[in-house]
Design a protein that fits this description.
The chain is mainly α. It has 13 helices and no strands.
């Protein structure tokens, strides 16, 4: 498969994987919901999926093939670290996935630490409940900034297009998985959490408690949180109470489940 073919197949591949994983996780939520919903799903989902659609359309317009196009550019120009190192294909793919995952972790911490970026990111945290739809609830500005950071890392490192495509699929799937309102069996949870960010682990990050909201920044693997000392072990996911999920710096408002208000949220006082 050539680099051009990978770039051409980027959107269809992501869409197929996205739809499949989303359907499976929705079924999992219905089968093993960890928290009882207190807000109309139709209201929340219309806002969250609407935000996801806005993101997709804007990114598609600005970056037709996402970060993969940056990888194709780096390969054609023969620039970037990996393009000047004697590494095998699978090694470059693995290195790309690890480096991009670290980039996303550090980016996430940056969005919490810098006030101007937090104004954008708090749209995600303003969701008064967390389920698979929350994984789509990122303001378009955040999605654009995130794509620019990833594209910059891709070019600097000279990552192969197939490695970038694999990472993007993994990241998208992992984000939906760890936002899912479902619980892994108690016996399996600690073992899964040795590698992956689980729903119970990530739910802490959506706490209204400021100290908890600044923990567990990882999306895919939990190693970065453990390495950089931002890890916090979860309590049973079902113990979350109404009002314990949401903004750590403000009260929950009815507008937090209205799409047009969320799009304007970063620009409001």
């Amino acid at each position: 498969m050539t680099d051009s073919t990978i770039a051409h197949d980027y959107a269809p591949t992501r869409l197929i994987v996205f739809a499949t994983i989303l359907a499976l996780l929705i079924l999992w939520e219905r089968w093993a919901a960890a928290r009882v919903s207190h807000i109309s799903r139709a209201r929340r989902w219309s806002a969250n999926f609407g935000m996801g659609l806005c993101d997709a359309l804007i990114l598609r317009f600005i970056f037709p093939a996402g970060a993969v196009s940056a990888a194709v550019f780096a390969a054609k120009q023969h620039i970037g670290l990996l393009n000047h190192m004697p590494v095998a294909g699978y090694q470059a793919i693995l290195a790309s996935c690890v480096l991009l995952d670290l980039t996303v972790y550090l980016q996430h911490r940056l969005f919490h630490a810098v006030p101007s970026l937090w104004r954008i990111h708090r749209v995600h945290h303003a969701d008064p409940e967390v389920d698979v739809s929350t994984a789509l609830r990122f303001h378009p500005l955040e999605s654009v900034v995130s794509m620019l950071l990833k594209a910059g890392m891709v070019v600097c490192c000279g990552m192969p297009p197939i490695g970038v495509l694999i990472f993007e699929v993994i990241l998208n799937s992992a984000a939906m998985f760890n936002h899912t309102n479902a619980s892994i069996p108690n016996r399996a949870e600690p073992w899964v959490r040795l590698i992956l960010v689980t729903p119970s682990m990530h739910s802490i990050h959506h706490s209204t408690d400021h100290a908890e909201a600044n923990r567990n920044f990882g999306f895919s693997v939990c190693w970065w949180d453990r390495l950089f000392r931002s890890y916090r072990a979860p309590t049973p996911i079902g113990t979350s109470l109404p009002g314990s999920i949401g903004l750590p710096d403000g009260e929950a408002l009815p507008e937090h489940v209205r799409l047009h208000w969320l799009l304007l949220m970063p620009f409001r006082e």
